[in-house]
Amino acid sequence: MKQNEKGHLITFFARQFERSKHDMDVTPFLDRESTIPLYKQLIDYFKNNMHDGALRKGMKLPSKRSLSNKLHISQTTVERCYEQLLAEGYIFSRPRSGMYVDYGAVSCLHYKGSQGVRSPKHPASTVIDFHYGHVNSEDFPLHSWKKSVSLSYDFHLDRLCKPSDEFGEHSLRSLIADYVYQARGVNTSADHVYVGSTTSYVLTLLCYVLDECQRVGFEDPGYPRSREIFTLLKKEVVPLRVDHTEGLLLGDIHSTKPDLIYVTPSHHYPLGSRMTLQKRVELLQSAEDVGAYIIEDDYDSEFHYTTEPLPSLHALAKRDNLIYMGTFSRSFLPSLRLSYMILPKSLLPRMQKLTLLYKQTVSSSQQLALADFMERREWTIHLNKMRTMYTKKKTVLLNELKHSFGDTIHIHGHLAGPRVLIDVLLDKGEKQLIEEADAAGVKVYPTSHAYLSDTPPATLQLGFSGLTIEDIQNGIQLLKEAWVR
Ligand SMILES: Cc1ncc(COP(=O)(O)O)c(C=O)c1O
């Protein structure tokens, strides 16, 4: 066991012990109309909670007085209940201290562990997870991030004692505006930047703002979470076909006439292709022809390996019809849940009104910490480091795949982002491949859920950002054993 794991366990046990010294707070529902006496209802409540594991061995029961006060019942009722539980061995009495749960063959800590955690199919150590949304903790700039978090409290405590600006902390919005200008050519200012918790949430708010837009042109295949959100909000989703060679088929925009178009031009989800400059200009023109807004989802454009990223659609747009979306989930930390969008001037008043209702959803301390992190240039350093690291990991993954599978797979979608796609030519379907991988302790991910129309027979996504180089090598070896027997 690693030293810091031991440390965590010691702290965990100490906390459990500390908790057990205090009376637990319970809120049983007692039915005063029932023919079952109250003390019996109380007994049932305690027993059920002990069986369920909510009340665990060593926990201290409320005193007779506090429970009778809380529930407005007599102390005698509580006393009868405790006596019965004592007699049946469910609780024990500690002189001058109180009553404690005595139920459970093993100690409460073990009990919680075995009840609270579902037993994994494989021991955790053998699961190699090729999820493209994970970040490897070894790559995370823990030291400098902790410094930023701490500084956010040291310097902004007054600020943190009041609610955040509805659009997010101004300093962060200003730094995001600078960043998207430098990295993506998005010419904007802090006033146009809205910070929100996750792309899905930001998109939901945008749907309310664009209430009049009912027909959404959506890439097929495309990002299923966003598509589901449109459907949930009762928008009509019309597929815009994405061809392997040609990319987005613009003719579909003219034939379906959507009033809102959602695209991932810089790194198509899931195919991994990117829209040419020519196609971007044509897309803007097509949207203008049919009078549609465009949502540009630029979720992982930080990671382009072989070529410079092309300017964003926003940078090329002339009209006030484009909403740009970005996130720190891929480039920094998925659990931060910090995403943003850049709105055209015409939509700002409606968004301002809406945010008075919803308020800001990302913790101000995390926003201010991120602002500090960006201001101290740690963000730029981190991005450069991650680009180098991901290039290395991707090279290892490609080599391992080629070496292990040769012509039995076709690799694509690897020019950007922390994942690659493989078409598996082994006469097995997507589901079978995923299940066989799972049984060998490896997680790989489908693409079929991204399609509205025909799905490819067996194309899988393999992300590498959450893994070490050694994990990648072991993972591909295990996949080979699982698939090519
Ligand atoms: C196409 C696409 N857009 C956006 C996101 C980011 O989502 P979030 O900001 O909720 O992490 C992802 C992440 O997986 C994605 O694949």
From TrEMBL:
A matching Pfam family: GntR
Record GO terms (molecular function): transaminase activity
Cofactor: pyridoxal 5'-phosphate
InterPro entries given in the database record: Aminotransferase_I/II_large (IPR004839), HTH_trans_reg/aminotransferase (IPR051446), PyrdxlP-dep_Trfase (IPR015424), PyrdxlP-dep_Trfase_major (IPR015421), Tscrpt_reg_HTH_GntR (IPR000524), WH-like_DNA-bd_sf (IPR036388), WH_DNA-bd_sf (IPR036390)
Keywords linked to the UniProt accession: Aminotransferase, DNA-binding, Pyridoxal phosphate, Transcription, Transcription regulation, Transferase
Residue stretches making up the HTH gntR-type domain: 36-104
Protein name, entry field: GntR family transcriptional regulator/MocR family aminotransferase
Originating organism: Geomicrobium sediminis
